[in-house]
Design brief:
Layout (H helix, E strand, L loop, with lengths): L1 H13 L4 E7 L4 E7 L8 H17 L5 E6 L2 H23 L3 E2 L5 H12 L4 E6 L6 E6 L2
Parallel strand pairs: 2-3
Antiparallel strand pairs: 1-2, 4-6, 5-6
Helix pairs in contact: 3-4
């Protein structure tokens, strides 16, 4: 695993990043990669995170590692917080207006966060609708 970790570190260095960490958790067979770079603008973060995520997952899959978590300038952590708040607000709105609402299209990970956040909510349920990049969540009142 050290060789794979070294390969990922070298890959990130070749992209010009200097402040980063690459950690492997053997128990969960998971890589965590954190990159800090002041030169990356906020508006480019989503695209950069998605591209780095895709490339590092390709490297990891060739080595039978399925879980890779990558975060640049804490973008993912902040985004997760926003998604959780969106889920809570959607539940409140559904209960207040007594009608279902559709959330914007999201990737699978973000939809999963919504489903998990509202799974314990006794009065609402969630359902994913659509296909591909257009897949979104509908929040409904439990009848």
């Amino acid at each position: 695993m050290n060789q794979l970790q070294d390969s990922i570190k070298k890959f990130i260095e070749l992209m010009g990043f200097e402040d980063f960490s690459v950690n492997f958790d053997a128990d969960s067979s998971r890589f965590s990669i954190f990159i800090n770079d002041d030169l990356i603008s906020e508006k480019n973060l989503p695209e950069i995170v998605d591209n780095l995520d895709y490339l590092t997952k390709l490297i990891a899959q060739k080595n039978n590692i399925e879980t890779v978590f990558i975060d640049v300038n804490n973008y993912r952590r902040k985004r997760e917080g926003l998604i959780v708040e969106l889920a809570k607000a959607a539940a409140r709105k559904v209960l207040a207006e007594k009608k279902e609402i559709s959330l914007p299209a999201m990737n699978a990970y973000e939809r999963r966060l919504i489903h998990l956040e509202l799974a314990g909510h006794p009065d609402v349920k969630t359902e994913s609708v659509g296909e591909g990049r257009s897949r979104y969540i509908v929040v409904k009142i439990i009848s």
